[in-house]
Amino acid sequence: MFDCYLKRVIYNKRFEMTYVALSQVIVTNMSTGSRVNMKSRHGYEVKQVQVLGGERYLVGHTSPTLLLGDLASCKLSEVAWQSGGNEKFYLENENVCMIFNAGELSLVEYGVNEVLGSVRTEHMSPHLLSVRINERKHRQDQEADCKKLAYLVDLRTICIMDLSLGTVLATVPHDSIINWLELNETGRKLLFRDRRLRLHLYDVGTQSLTSLLSYCSYVQWIPQSDVVVAQNKTSLCVWYNINIPDKTTMFPLKGEVTSLERRGGRTEVMVKTGVDTVTYTLDEGLIEFGTAVDDRDYLRALSFLEGLEMSGESEAMWGTLGQLSLQDRKLKIAERCYAALGDVAKVRYLREVGKLADKMTLETGQDGTTHYLVEAKMAALNKQLKQAEAILLERGELDMVMTMYQELHRWEDAIEVAAARSHPDLATLKATHYQHLLDSGQEERAGKMKEREGDLPGAISLYMKAGLPGKAAKLISQHQELSSQPDLLRHIASSLSEGGQFEKAGELFEKAQELQQAMEAYRRAGAFRRAVELARSAYPTQVVKLEEEWGVYLCGRREYEAAIVHLIEAGRLEKAAEAAIISRQWSKAVQIVDMLQPDQAGEHYQLLASHFASTRDLPMAEKYFLRANMAQEAMDMYVRAEDWRAAHRVAVGCMPPDDIRELYVAQAGQMEREGRLGEAEQLFLLVNEPDQAISMYKKARQYDPMVHLVAQFHSDLLTETHLLLAQELEAEGAVRPAEKHFLEAGDWKSAVSMYREKGQWEDAHRVAKNGGGVSAANQVAYTWAQNLGGDSAVKLMSKFGLLETAVDYATDHFEFDFAFSIAKVALKEKVTDIHLKKALHLEDEGKFREAEESFAAAGKPKEAVLMYVHQQAWDDAQRVAELHCPESVSDVLIGQARVAFEQKNYQKAEGHLLRADRPDLVAKFYKEADMWQDALRIMKDYLPHQLDEFQKEMAAKSGTSYRDLLSQARTWEQSGEHSRAVDVYLQVTSSNCPDHDVLQDSWEKAVDLTLKFASTRSVDVVTLVSDRLAHLGRYVQAGEMFLSVEMVKEGLDMYMAGEAWDKAREIARNIAPRYVEYVEQAYVDYLREQNRPDEMQGVDPEGALRMYCEKGQWQHCLQLAEKQGAVVLEKYVALYAAHLIKTSAPLTALQLFNKYGTSPNPQNFNIYKHLCVEVFSGDWEGEGGCRTLSLLRNVLLGLVETLSHSREDRVPGSQRVPALSLCITLSHHANCVSGCAPAGWAGSQDLCESPEVHRHSAPRQSLLPGRPPLQEDGLG
Q1: Residue 113 has pLDDT above 80, yes or no
Q2: What is the model's pTM?
Q3: Are the C-beta atoms of 322 and 303 separated by less than 8 Å?
Q4: Which of 220, 210, 216 is nearest to 231 (CA)?
């Protein structure tokens, strides 16, 4: 027996896939031997087969179709499908495969060759999809398929779809993101939970939403039932009857619910408490009840309920069973259910209906529950009276309908049916009903009958009798013809008022033109709109008051929003603001509060601030907190919101700086511990603590922000910080970050050294090239090559093109072995140069023998000779020169001669140079040693042709510095060339000599030589030297120079220019009296220019007095004038008095005259007159006025006495004595009156009216302000 197949594949070592044809694959489970034949019914080639979903489901692909299969149920499906290779298969449901591709969800039912349905969704989590495919049918859907899908359209919207019909059953919007949903097995109920862990139930049939729990951590439908299990924190909640969600069974528990299991007739909830798992067993009977009801097995449900005690859950289940039994006409079962519920009336009624049904069953032989009488009674039981009426009228049972309505006391319905059917007893029925109404006190219903019959007055009468004036008023409003009876209106309105129906009463009062009563009724009814409308037309002045009452009334009814407008209309802004705040009309509240005065809005500011703080409108909250003087609360708000910058801005105005700093530092520390370093930094900076922020970043090893802060606040430490960080990172082995900080610090050399120590030569070369350029890179490359050594070093230098550079660098740094190692391999022509440089180095090191060998190897024996010459090793130099370089022998002799000259062994030196045939050098050395005579001897003996030039050189030897000039001058002086010595001394000036003492000495020497040996030049030399000394500020010395040549005036000018006045005045008096006046006048001008009156007293007292006057130093002036005599004193006392009068200080002027006396000089009488006018026209009252008048009297009295004791021809003012006596008398009277002010003195006018003054009427007129001066009296 042979197997015939195209190919065979072993899949995951558990399945064998045998391709028996292009379109057919047999999949065999190698462990169980079960086989499934997957075949394309369209004959398409099967390209790929996969086993997915716990190795239970098959997925195969053909070009135009998709093959799906269930290995457990052997159901296969083939659907049209254009595969893009991006499909995702969800195989959690046993009945349907869900395929997600490009935002579209497709469902394929196993065993069905069509796509069950497709929807658009982006949410493919198993918790956000629920599919139910005929898992359990509801009692009402036994014939229909139950294929339903619930999915998310978006994160807040659920869509429930009937897949069999392709219609949307419901769309459920929600206010929060949904994170779990699931349909029950019948697809009639939907449970879903949102992100806030709130659990909701949606009834698909009634499309009603019920909230089950405010917090739910676990929820699940119990399989094969409609029972829900959920966890609410520490409680286990079970809904045995989900149709009554208010009936919940709750158990306390500890731990978290993990799952539930239902097997073996038990349902258990698994709860994990720490490491243990505890089970809670649910009441299986309660669970089975729901299943029995859904299966319409009412007897099983009844038998289950019979065994239960009455409780909230069992009561709800009795009610549910009773309703369902009535719907299915199970009257006996319904009777038992309502008996259990204690509904006796319904039980009795059902028993009668049951008997009727049994009777009809016996009479007709059919199901009695379908008889029309039974159906009518059941309709009446369900309060479907119209349906019962229709059933009976259809069978002609009019009397039975009327009897039914009468038994139910629905007379109006009975009369309506009788009227519709023209029953002969209609009138009797109406009369009986009317009389019954009257007898039973039902005047209202009787009134309605009268109203329907058109008897309006009778209806109103009955309504009023029944105490229903409102209905009477309504009837009047509906029939305007009744409004023409004012008495009736007032009567009804009064009754309405008594019954509290004030608004209707107000309408009737208004119709009856009782406007005041209407207004009062409207107010009492709270109908302020109508009251305001009435007031606008009848009582305009009451509108504002009514608006306020309206607003207060609305506030009392908590209709604050409506009250706002009326309170504003009434001008009660404070109450309007309060109403706006209470009604949460915050925008209106803000507008109103802003119009209030601060003292009225204090509490409102606080409420507004609290609201804006709660809504996170922090700037507005701050604004009103500050207006309410609650800066601390504003700061606390910003602290809670973690807006630290704003909090700091507010805190500056309400907290001490130390408290702010402590708060912010503590909060920053907390943020640092939480890892919120950026926010912590902001807090540190707000309180000016950048160092703590820097330390924080350093501890957190976040060096970039740390460096940024250092650059911002400690820029002077930035370089040091980079270096420290680089060193720490280098020690930790973090070379790249360390390199970065070395470079930021500008220390690229340290970065290079770091890489060199780590052996990372490429990085060292890169950093050196970037930081120090080509030269630095070459140095690193050189060190790299040294580290490699041998041929590797040559190759490396060759790679960089640095062979010659490396050799040069090695020799420059005395690394000759390395240089030779490269040169001998690649640059043999450089060997000689290396030997030469090595010889020079050895010479510097003092290794002369080795250096000599290297010079010889380099072919430079002369350099060896010079080396020995330099070292004064003359024997070695001579040896090498004679052996290798005879032409250098003379150089050796010259070197020996130079040393001898330095040792002042001139003969030996001269001998060596002459042996070397170099007399010119002998002459040169002698000249340098200032041995001109020896130099001259050599020139004469060996170089006679250069004698002329030598003589010129001796002449030009003198230098240009002041020391050279002084030396040269002394030379000329010693040589007797005094005139030339003077010229040289005068060549020493401030341009070549900074020392003024040296200059003075030089010039004085020139003057001295001139006076002694060149008197003809003395004037010119003295003039020149004096001018130079004056420029140096040495005027006294310059003056003495002039005096030495009898230039007296010029000498005096120098003394005066140097402010040596005593010297100048003494010389003028003793030597040149003709210049005394010239000097004195210059001295006076000088003192006047310097404003020094104290010194001028001894020179020009009058001038000193004038200076004191000009400076306002009157006391000094008077003291000096007093020394100059009475005449001068009188003059300056008068000047001072005139000054005081101009400055309105007559009291001081009087005191001045009182101290120094009064002069009879006629020029002073004008001053006395002005003093009198000033005093008499002033304020005489008080102690000051009395003292002033007393002084005036004494001064004038002294003046009169002086004039009286003088002869008129000697004192020109004697004729003014009468006028002065009058002034004395007036001042005396004024003084007396001023001292007696309580006796009635009232000022100058009273003085003028006194008898004494009346005797002198003419003088009196001149004493008053604004009158002619006292000329008539002789004082003018």
Answers
A1: yes
A2: 0.37
A3: no
A4: 216
Locate all alpha helices (DSSP H) within 1045-1180, ordered by sequence: 1048-1057, 1061-1070, 1076-1090, 1093-1096, 1101-1111, 1114-1124, 1126-1142, 1146-1156, 1165-1176
Selection from 12, 105, 26, 90 nearest residue 57 by Cα: 90
> What is the Cα–Cα distance from 1211 to 341, expressed in whole angstroms?
149
Q: For residues 1013 and 966, what is the distance between their CA atoms, to the nearest angstrom?
A: 18
Dump pLDDT digits (tens) for 515-541: 777 777 777 777 777 777 777 777 777
Phi then psi dihedrals of residue 1094, to 5 deg: -60, -40
Type and span of the H or E element at 954: helix 947-955
Determine contact, residues 158/150, Cβ cutoff 8 Å. Answer: yes
Which of 329-336's residues contact partners 24+ apart within 8 Å by CB, and which partners? 329/369, 329/370, 329/378, 330/298, 331/357, 331/369, 333/298, 333/299, 333/302, 336/302
Residue 491: pLDDT band (50, 70, 90) is low
Q: Interhelix angle for 1018-1031 vs 978-986, to 10°? A: 20
pLDDT of residue 1083: 67
Partnered with residue 16 across adjacent β-strands are 10, 28
What one-character DSSP code corresponds to residue 183?
A: E
In this structure, of 106-110, 584-588, 912-916, the range with the lowest mean pLDDT score is 912-916
Q: CA–CA separation, 212 vs 7, rounded Å?
A: 59
d(C-alpha 920, C-alpha 942), whole Å: 8
**What residue type is 1232 in one-letter code?**
C
CB 1105 within 8 A of CB 1125: no
1185 touches 1178 (CB < 8 A):
yes
Q: Which secondary structure element, helix H or strand E, spans residue 217, and what is its range?
A: none
Query: How does the average pLDDT of the chain come out, rounded?
Result: 74
pLDDT, one tens digit per residue, over 1062-1076 is: 677 677 777 777 776
- Contact call for residues 260 and 270 (beta carbons, < 8 A): yes
Cα dihedral 388, 389, 395, 396 in deg (nearest 10): 150
d(CA 961, CA 427): 161
Residue with tokens 């050594």: 789
Please state the rounded mean pLDDT for residues 706-720: 81
200 pLDDT higher than 90: yes
Contact predicate 257/218, CB 8 Å: yes
Give the separation between CA 144 and CA 156, rounded to whole angstroms: 31
Both structure tokens of 986? 């005068």
Helix and strand totals (H; E) in the chain: 64, 27
pLDDT for residue 1256 is more than 50: no
Is 156 or 847 the better-scoring residue by pLDDT? 156
Burial code of 238-266, b = ≥16 C-beta within 10 A, e = fewer? bbbbbbbeebbbeeebeeebeebebeeee
1252 or 119, which is more confident: 119
Pairing status of strand 208-213 against strand 199-203:
antiparallel
Q: Residue 469 and residue 443: Cα distance in Å, rounded?
A: 12
What pLDDT was estimated at residue 209? 93
Q: Which residue's entry shows tokens 């701050």? A: 622
Strand order in the sheet with 256-263: 256-263, 266-273, 276-281
Rounded to whole angstroms, the Cα distance separating 1079 from 561 reads 105
Given a cut of 90, is residue 747 above it in pLDDT?
no
The maximal CA–CA distance of the chain, rounded, in angstroms, is 190
CB 107 within 8 Å of CB 98: yes
Per-residue pLDDT at 182 exceeds 90 = yes
Q: Is the pLDDT of residue 42 over 80?
A: yes
Distance (Å, rounded) from C-alpha 1123 to C-alpha 1112?
19
Cα separation, 760 vs 756, whole angstroms: 6
What is the per-residue pLDDT for 1260? 39
Count the Cβ atoms, other than its own, within 10 Å of residue 4. Answer: 7
